[in-house]
């Protein structure tokens, strides 16, 4: 396989600068001797206008901010590559990056939607999953989300929708939350939102990690072959680590304990060489089958069930490099749904059509002019030659007298390309010019119910709890009632349970409920049971069994799991009977169980005694237990589990006991059996012990 993915970095290297070994200068390159005092008339006198250094420094600072994205303002990104597995898609498309097997450089930006740039990562929200492929044929952007459908069917409603979900105008409250009156007022009056709102109330809105969420292109796009023949396509990203979520109580706590939780997780994993990875899959539909479904392929509030059209794996995406500068790269990257390469085209999805206008338009104000494609992160690696000239921030020095087509004075250049050009798919279109919605878009409940029917019991519980939380924050009783009315069209039991929670009357069941299911929609039913990429907290104090701990850490790390040692104070932990001192990674009081996937309490009577008397330690275990996470202890560490209210059966001898996600043994030191670590890793692979009773959450 050719490794083509360095091409972008070679280009970026020409823009990367490093202050190492340099001296301070002005923007003009004049060396600066003094930057702590401004030039003034006398040491207590007024500052002088002629202090060009101070003026330049302050002026630049005054202009450091640019408008944040109107949606998806909060994000995190990374570089990597995409490689197609083989050329099997060449029957359908001339897009080389999908068929060549070369490593294609990419930049991916993940985001939340509603919050401002500085908002917390773990809010209940959709996540953006936008990929820029720097292909040899030009840049292709797949600007997707982590949910396969959308709130509205026509882009003309997007400003209304976003105004409703954003903080309310009088006081700009609440930040990054849909749990307020205007959002639910919009939802309750727009039945087309119903399907997506179920996704939003599901665990999908609370990803454990950007590395552990699916991505979707949402719209139906088109692949186009060399003869101009089109095939409908839906794009899917499937994470190698599985699709996993946080629970709501955790999310709210993490928003305070570590608002950068998802951003940090992405950064840290790439720094550690644990490169996040997804598989690209496509659902292909022959154009002849356009009307073979009980929904319209052009309707972005609908998905194609995977059981009906299987997702065919076509390649892999790997993120292997963090940006050097957040602003220059993650903030200035500009995605656009109309950045297409030959072999991919649009459909008439009215949401997509509006997006094709919006993204270019928004970049003009956000990035300050028409030359943002010249910013390093946005530059294609394909050759660029246009007749576009001038404008703010022009970086190129265009030689020659001609900047028009057709010219003879410039030798006719740039000439019209012969091969490899983009050709719009030829589609016959007819109709009256009307402002109307197609009747094929009018069923809003069938797929909402399909989603609900496909959920496991615990996923349903979470959805009901989410509706109760969100509507519970709505002050207008009639909006609560109207929303419950809508839910009643999806499922009567769902409506009744939400109604009870939010103090409105449950409506009578309606006719037309169906029993169809799509098992692929249940996150808990999806494959991905591996402990890889997880983070475990190990609580220890002086006198801990460092021999047993070291053995366990080694076993965990071999399985791709990170173990952090948390101690009441910084500094190395003194060993118990034998063994060497153990460095502590974190001080216990600076961390919290919500930042980890599991907790382990090791042996060592003095260590256990200290932890039993430490409120943070006891709370840590209680909270992890109540969040249904794997909890493990060996030797005297088991006592801390008892103190923390763990009610599962605990080991009373050296035999490893793994009950309800609680792994224990009385063995310790060199005697600690490998099965202890194996059972912990198996519990981690299961993500949570969902059967564990949680009536008393929060901790
Ligand atoms: Fe976007 N969207 N969007 N959107 N969107 C933007 O573009 C818009 C929609 C998505 O990390 C904006 O550069 C309209 C669907 C992502 O930089 C803006 C409509 C999907 C990102 C915009 C939609 C998305 C954006 C704001 C309805 C999933 C972040 C800043 C017609 C398939 C990209 C910007 C990044 C960003 C408009 C609907 C995904 C204003 C008008 C559906 C991932 O142009």
Automatic annotation (TrEMBL):
Instruction: Pinpoint the Catalase core domain residues.
Output: 25-413
Stretches the record annotates as Disordered: 1-45
Q: Does the keyword Nucleus apply?
A: no
Q: Which reaction does it catalyse?
A: 2 H2O2 = O2 + 2 H2O
Query: One MF term from GO for this chain?
Result: catalase activity
Cofactor annotation = heme
Which EC number(s) does the record attach to this protein? Answer: 1.11.1.6
For bias type Basic and acidic residues, the affected ranges are 1-19, 33-43
| Keywords annotated in UniProt | Heme, Hydrogen peroxide, Iron, Metal-binding, Oxidoreductase, Peroxidase
First-tier enzyme category under EC: oxidoreductase
In the record, the note on similarity to other proteins reads:
Belongs to the catalase family. HPII subfamily.
Q: What does it do?
A: Decomposes hydrogen peroxide into water and oxygen; serves to protect cells from the toxic effects of hydrogen peroxide.
The protein depicted here goes by the name Catalase
* Gene source species: Amycolatopsis samaneae
């Amino acid at each position: 396989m050719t490794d083509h993915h360095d091409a972008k970095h070679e280009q970026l290297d020409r823009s990367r600068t490093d202050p190492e070994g340099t001296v301070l200068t002005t923007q003009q390159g004049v060396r600066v001797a003094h930057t702590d005092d401004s030039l003034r008339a006398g040491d207590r006198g007024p500052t002088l206008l002629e202090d060009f250094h101070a003026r330049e420094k302050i002026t630049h600072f005054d202009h450091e901010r640019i408008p944040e994205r109107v949606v998806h303002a909060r994000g995190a990104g990374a570089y990597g590559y995409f490689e197609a597995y083989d050329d099997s898609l060449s029957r359908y498309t001339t897009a080389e990056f999908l068929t060549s097997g070369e490593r294609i450089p990419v930049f991916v930006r993940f985001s939340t939607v509603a919050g401002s740039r500085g908002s917390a990562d773990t809010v209940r929200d959709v996540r953006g999953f936008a990929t820029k492929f720097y292909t040899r044929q030009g840049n292709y952007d797949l600007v997707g989300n982590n949910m396969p459908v959308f709130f509205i069917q026509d882009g003309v409603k997007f400003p209304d929708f976003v105004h409703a979900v954003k903080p309310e105008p009088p006081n700009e409250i609440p930040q990054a939350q849909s749990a307020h009156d205007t959002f639910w007022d919009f939802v309750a009056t727009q039945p087309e939102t119903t399907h997506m709102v179920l996704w939003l109330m599901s665990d999908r809105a609370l990803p454990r990690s950007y590395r552990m969420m699916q991505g979707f292109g949402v719209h139906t796009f088109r692949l186009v072959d060399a003869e101009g023949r089109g095939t409908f396509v839906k794009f899917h990203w499937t994470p190698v680590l599985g699709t996993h979520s946080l629970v709501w109580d955790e999310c709210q706590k993490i928003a305070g304990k570590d608002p950068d939780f998802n951003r940090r997780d992405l950064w840290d994993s790439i720094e550690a060489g644990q490169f996040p990875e997804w598989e690209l899959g496509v659902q292909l539909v022959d154009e002849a089958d356009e009307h073979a479904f009980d929904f319209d392929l052009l309707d972005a509030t609908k998905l194609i069930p995977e059981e009906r059209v299987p997702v065919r794996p076509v390649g892999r995406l790997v993120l292997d490099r963090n940006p050097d500068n957040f602003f220059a790269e993650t903030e200035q990257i500009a995605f656009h749904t109309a950045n297409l390469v030959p072999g991919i085209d649009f459909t008439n999805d009215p949401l997509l059509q509006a997006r094709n206008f919006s993204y270019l338009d928004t970049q003009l104000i956000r990035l300050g002019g028409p030359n943002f494609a010249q910013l390093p992160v946005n530059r294609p690696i394909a050759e660029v030659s246009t007749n576009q000239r001038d404008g703010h921030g022009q970086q190129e020095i265009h030689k020659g007298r001609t900047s028009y087509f057709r010219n003879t004075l410039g030798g006719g250049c740039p000439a019209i390309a012969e091969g490899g050009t983009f050709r719009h798919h030829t589609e016959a279109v007819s109709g009256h010019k009307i402002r109307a919605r197609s009747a094929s878009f009018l069923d809003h409940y069938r797929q909402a119910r399909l989603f609900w029917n496909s959920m496991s019991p615990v996923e349903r519980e979470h959805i009901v709890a989410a509706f109760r939380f969100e509507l519970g924050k709505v002050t207008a009783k009639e909006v609560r009632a109207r929303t419950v009315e809508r839910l009643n069209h999806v499922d009567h039991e769902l409506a009744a349970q939400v109604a009870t929670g939010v103090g409105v009357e449950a409506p009578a069941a309606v006719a037309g409920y169906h029993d169809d299911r799509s098992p692929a929609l249940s996150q808990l039913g999806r494959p991905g049971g591996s402990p890889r990429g997880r983070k475990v907290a190990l609580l220890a104090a002086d006198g801990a069994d460092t021999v047993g701990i070291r053995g366990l850490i080694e076993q965990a790390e071999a399985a791709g799991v990170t173990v952090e040692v948390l101690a009441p104070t910084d500094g190395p932990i003194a060993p118990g009977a034998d063994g060497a001192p153990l460095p502590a990674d974190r001080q216990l009081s600076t961390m919290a169980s919500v930042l980890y996937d599991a907790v382990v309490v090791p042996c060592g009577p003095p260590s256990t005694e200290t932890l039993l008397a430490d409120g943070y330690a006891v709370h840590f275990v209680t909270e992890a237990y109540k969040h249904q996470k794997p909890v493990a202890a060996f030797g005297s560490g088991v006592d801390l589990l008892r103190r923390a209210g763990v009610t599962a059966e605990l080991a009373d001898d050296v035999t490893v006991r793994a009950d309800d996600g609680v792994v224990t043994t009385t063995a310790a030191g060199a005697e600690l059996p490998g099965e202890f670590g194996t059972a912990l890793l198996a519990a981690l692979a299961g993500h949570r012990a969902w059967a564990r009773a949680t009536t008393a959450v929060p901790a």
